[in-house]
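User: Okay, second chain of the day. Same drill as before: sequence in, structure tokens out.
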Amino acid sequence: MSRKEEASNLNRLDFMRLAAVGAGGLGLTALAGFSPRATAAEGTRQGYVVAVTHGTQDATRVMLALVTASMLPKGDNHVWFAIDGGQLCKKGEAEKVTSPLFVKQGNAAKMLDAIRAKGTPVHI
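Assistant: Same drill. Structure tokens below.
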């Protein structure tokens, strides 16, 4: 029997079985290589990254991120401003951001000064 004849004798049920076995094999292969620990990063830099992705229209989220960044333990920590958070890096914008939940902390500019005083780099 030639290959063409063998292929034409393959019905839909056989095809579905073969596809399921193939997909299951790929899934098991992926799981076999899965490791819950990040081995490439072990023993290297230890720190946190705080992303500020909200701008002046959502002051509570901005202040929450900045308060979190100001309370991080010592390490290789970074604060990144992205998306709408980049607006806060314009001159005078951080002074406008205050939240009723973080009255004691003041405005975003004051929090940024505290973060920088701890040596944490701020990136845009």
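DSSP finds four helices and three strands in the chain.

User: Thanks, on to the next one.
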